[in-house]
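REQUEST ID: PR-0412
SUBMITTED BY: lab tech R.K.
PRIORITY: routine
TASK: structure prediction, single protein chain
INPUT:
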Amino acid sequence: MKSTEKTTAGYAIEVQGGETTVHLYGTMDYSSAPGLVRQIGSEFHPPSGAPVVVDMQRVPYMDDFGVLVVLELKKIAAERHADFRIVGAGGRVEETLFLVGFDSLGKSYEINEKRQGIMVRLGQATIDIFSEFKYMIFFLGSICIALFHVFIHPRSLRTGDLFLYMQRAGVEALPIVGLISFLLGLIMAFMSSAQLQQFGAGVYVASLVSLAMTRELGPIMTAIIVAGRSGAAFAAEIGSMKISEEIDALTTMGFDPVRFLAVPKVLAAVLMVPLLTLFSDLFAMAGGLIVGIFMLDLSGRAYVAQTIYTLTLFDVFWGVGKSFVFAFLIAWIGCLKGFQVRGGATAVGEAATSAVVSGIFMIIVADSLFAVILRYW
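STATUS: complete
OUTPUT:
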């Protein structure tokens, strides 16, 4: 057993069973990290091919400077073609490693990809997918913990930011949601009226528009619009803070970045998207009403009466309930992509695009699950 002098932070090396274990202890921050990096670089020489394990059970806190200590150990292990893994990391330490993307640091990439076979590329793509899925689950857990903390301590919620994001995600999105929903209802009524008139069933245009919008199209269209507006904005805002090191500054000052940045966005989306969905349903029915009056010779009273007769509270609440889930998915994906930004301004744009595409994909998947549940309920 070899250990450094007992200072604020240090390390101890243990070799057992062909495996080298580095026990880190103390606070790894800007004051202790530089000395540890130099000391490890000059003193740590593990056997070639022997696995290197970093035990961080005794590290209560680590900032981005402390990450450099672990990165130095990872670099030395890579130079000796040895396996590297971290054990015993606490919640705050593990979160810091996640925020800096430690798993992707220090990787080497082949410049000439033509030398890699199709199986190698397929395997790498599979590993990347599972790694992405792991980050998604980790971030989902972080958001759930942060939401629970806000529920227990309401005063920790930044209400000013909450109202700001409610305005951006809800009030400012109302014109475009209303216009698109109105046109969508008008198109559905116009296309179906030609067929239903042949059977003298023009009044059922009201039933078609109301059911289609409240159950399916209203929540989906609203969620897609919000994903394109707010989901991309969430990713771009957090991504810009990430590359400008503002998130690192928040972590250094002791703030939880997820609670500080993501929670107001998630709550704003969850509160406003269901309301936007109700407005979407109303505007779509108004579009169908225009077609019913001017093309089907229906009175406004008959159209509204048929709509009320067709719809039930279950239909309305089913669509609103789905919009709650869609809103959470949009905010979750948008914030996740923002926290994953690495690099410069180009990475921010890529994160915004990825947030929109991933958000729409998750919305469609969730809606498919809701359709199966409704079918077998």
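NOTES: The beta strands are 2-3, 9-16, 19-26, 52-58, 84-87.
REVIEWED BY: pending
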